[in-house]
Amino acid sequence: MTSPLDPKALRQVFGQFCTGVTAVCASDADGRRYGITVNSFSSLSLDPPLALFALVRESETLKVIQAAGTFSVNILAQSQQDVSNGLAKKGGPEKMDAVRTRTGVTGAPIIEGTIGYLDCTLYAEYDGGDHVIVVGEIKQAAVGEALPPLLYFRSGYQTLPA
Q1: Quick one: which of 130, 38, 128 has its CA closest to 75?
Q2: What residues does 131 pair with on adjacent strands?
Q3: pTM for the structure as a whole
Q4: Among residues 13, 36, 69, 148, which is most buried (max CB within 10 A)?
Protein backbone atom coordinates (compact mmCIF):
# COMPACT_ATOMS: atom_id res chain seq x y z
CA MET A 1 0.00 0.00 0.00
CA THR A 2 1.36 3.42 -0.89
CA SER A 3 0.85 6.56 1.11
CA PRO A 4 -1.62 9.17 -0.21
CA LEU A 5 0.74 11.88 1.08
CA ASP A 6 2.91 13.78 -1.38
CA PRO A 7 6.54 12.80 -0.56
CA LYS A 8 7.82 16.31 -1.32
CA ALA A 9 5.26 17.90 1.03
CA LEU A 10 5.98 15.31 3.71
CA ARG A 11 9.72 15.96 3.42
CA GLN A 12 9.00 19.67 3.94
CA VAL A 13 7.05 18.92 7.13
CA PHE A 14 9.82 16.61 8.38
CA GLY A 15 12.25 19.48 7.72
CA GLN A 16 10.49 21.57 10.36
CA PHE A 17 12.14 19.44 13.03
CA CYS A 18 15.63 20.69 13.91
CA THR A 19 18.12 17.87 14.36
CA GLY A 20 21.73 17.41 15.22
CA VAL A 21 23.90 15.76 12.59
CA THR A 22 25.70 12.48 13.13
CA ALA A 23 28.02 10.36 11.06
CA VAL A 24 27.63 6.60 11.41
CA CYS A 25 30.82 4.67 10.63
CA ALA A 26 31.83 1.01 10.33
CA SER A 27 34.71 -1.04 8.96
CA ASP A 28 34.47 -4.05 6.68
CA ALA A 29 36.41 -7.31 7.06
CA ASP A 30 39.29 -5.83 5.01
CA GLY A 31 39.56 -2.79 7.30
CA ARG A 32 38.03 -0.34 4.82
CA ARG A 33 36.15 2.46 6.59
CA TYR A 34 32.60 3.38 5.56
CA GLY A 35 30.53 6.30 6.76
CA ILE A 36 27.23 8.02 6.17
CA THR A 37 25.60 11.22 7.41
CA VAL A 38 22.55 10.52 9.58
CA ASN A 39 20.08 12.87 11.26
CA SER A 40 17.54 10.17 12.18
CA PHE A 41 19.45 9.44 15.39
CA SER A 42 17.89 9.08 18.85
CA SER A 43 18.78 7.82 22.28
CA LEU A 44 16.61 4.84 23.23
CA SER A 45 17.45 3.30 26.61
CA LEU A 46 19.81 3.72 29.55
CA ASP A 47 19.40 0.12 30.76
CA PRO A 48 20.59 -1.49 28.60
CA PRO A 49 22.35 1.46 26.93
CA LEU A 50 20.78 1.68 23.46
CA ALA A 51 20.59 4.20 20.63
CA LEU A 52 18.93 4.03 17.22
CA PHE A 53 19.03 5.50 13.74
CA ALA A 54 17.56 4.65 10.34
CA LEU A 55 19.34 4.02 7.03
CA VAL A 56 17.89 3.57 3.57
CA ARG A 57 17.83 -0.14 2.69
CA GLU A 58 20.25 0.26 -0.23
CA SER A 59 22.95 1.91 1.89
CA GLU A 60 26.40 0.42 1.43
CA THR A 61 27.24 1.43 5.02
CA LEU A 62 24.19 -0.50 6.28
CA LYS A 63 25.50 -3.66 4.62
CA VAL A 64 28.90 -3.16 6.27
CA ILE A 65 27.25 -2.61 9.68
CA GLN A 66 25.19 -5.78 9.28
CA ALA A 67 28.27 -7.83 8.35
CA ALA A 68 30.60 -6.33 10.98
CA GLY A 69 28.06 -6.17 13.80
CA THR A 70 29.69 -2.96 15.07
CA PHE A 71 29.49 0.77 14.29
CA SER A 72 30.02 4.19 15.77
CA VAL A 73 27.68 7.17 15.96
CA ASN A 74 29.65 10.42 15.87
CA ILE A 75 27.89 13.65 16.88
CA LEU A 76 29.31 16.29 14.57
CA ALA A 77 30.46 19.77 15.53
CA GLN A 78 29.63 22.85 13.48
CA SER A 79 33.25 22.85 12.26
CA GLN A 80 32.66 19.41 10.68
CA GLN A 81 30.19 20.48 8.00
CA ASP A 82 32.67 19.26 5.37
CA VAL A 83 32.59 15.77 6.97
CA SER A 84 28.79 15.82 6.89
CA ASN A 85 28.71 16.91 3.25
CA GLY A 86 31.30 14.34 2.19
CA LEU A 87 29.58 11.43 3.90
CA ALA A 88 26.15 12.47 2.60
CA LYS A 89 27.22 11.68 -0.97
CA LYS A 90 26.84 8.27 -2.59
CA GLY A 91 29.98 6.18 -2.65
CA GLY A 92 32.01 3.61 -0.83
CA PRO A 93 35.03 3.70 1.43
CA GLU A 94 36.63 6.55 -0.56
CA LYS A 95 34.22 8.93 1.22
CA MET A 96 36.22 8.35 4.41
CA ASP A 97 39.63 9.17 2.85
CA ALA A 98 39.68 12.74 4.21
CA VAL A 99 38.12 11.86 7.59
CA ARG A 100 40.47 11.46 10.57
CA THR A 101 39.48 8.50 12.74
CA ARG A 102 40.77 6.23 15.43
CA THR A 103 39.61 2.71 16.24
CA GLY A 104 37.03 2.26 19.01
CA VAL A 105 36.74 -0.63 21.46
CA THR A 106 34.41 -2.48 19.07
CA GLY A 107 36.76 -1.97 16.12
CA ALA A 108 34.53 0.67 14.55
CA PRO A 109 36.09 3.93 13.33
CA ILE A 110 35.57 6.91 15.67
CA ILE A 111 35.77 10.35 14.02
CA GLU A 112 38.22 12.76 15.65
CA GLY A 113 37.07 16.23 16.75
CA THR A 114 33.39 15.49 17.37
CA ILE A 115 31.25 16.75 20.24
CA GLY A 116 30.68 13.13 21.29
CA TYR A 117 30.54 9.55 20.09
CA LEU A 118 28.95 6.19 20.80
CA ASP A 119 30.77 2.95 20.01
CA CYS A 120 28.17 0.21 19.50
CA THR A 121 27.45 -3.40 18.68
CA LEU A 122 24.43 -4.24 16.55
CA TYR A 123 21.57 -5.03 18.95
CA ALA A 124 18.52 -5.25 16.65
CA GLU A 125 17.09 -4.22 13.29
CA TYR A 126 13.49 -3.35 12.47
CA ASP A 127 11.53 -2.70 9.30
CA GLY A 128 11.10 1.01 8.69
CA GLY A 129 9.48 1.10 5.25
CA ASP A 130 12.16 2.13 2.77
CA HIS A 131 14.61 2.30 5.70
CA VAL A 132 16.00 -0.12 8.26
CA ILE A 133 15.87 0.99 11.90
CA VAL A 134 19.19 0.03 13.49
CA VAL A 135 19.49 -0.29 17.26
CA GLY A 136 22.94 -0.37 18.78
CA GLU A 137 24.06 -1.39 22.23
CA ILE A 138 26.53 1.22 23.42
CA LYS A 139 29.83 -0.28 24.56
CA GLN A 140 31.70 2.99 25.02
CA ALA A 141 30.71 6.67 24.84
CA ALA A 142 32.45 9.96 25.41
CA VAL A 143 31.81 13.68 25.22
CA GLY A 144 34.21 15.54 22.94
CA GLU A 145 35.57 19.02 23.38
CA ALA A 146 34.27 20.53 20.13
CA LEU A 147 31.34 22.97 20.20
CA PRO A 148 28.87 24.15 18.96
CA PRO A 149 26.89 21.27 17.41
CA LEU A 150 26.18 20.96 13.70
CA LEU A 151 22.42 21.48 13.29
CA TYR A 152 20.07 20.83 10.36
CA PHE A 153 16.74 22.61 9.84
CA ARG A 154 14.58 23.29 6.75
CA SER A 155 17.01 21.53 4.40
CA GLY A 156 20.06 23.46 5.54
CA TYR A 157 22.68 23.81 8.23
CA GLN A 158 21.90 26.20 11.07
CA THR A 159 23.79 27.74 13.97
CA LEU A 160 22.74 28.41 17.52
CA PRO A 161 22.22 32.10 18.29
CA ALA A 162 24.88 33.62 20.53
Answers
A1: 38
A2: 56, 128
A3: 0.92
A4: 36
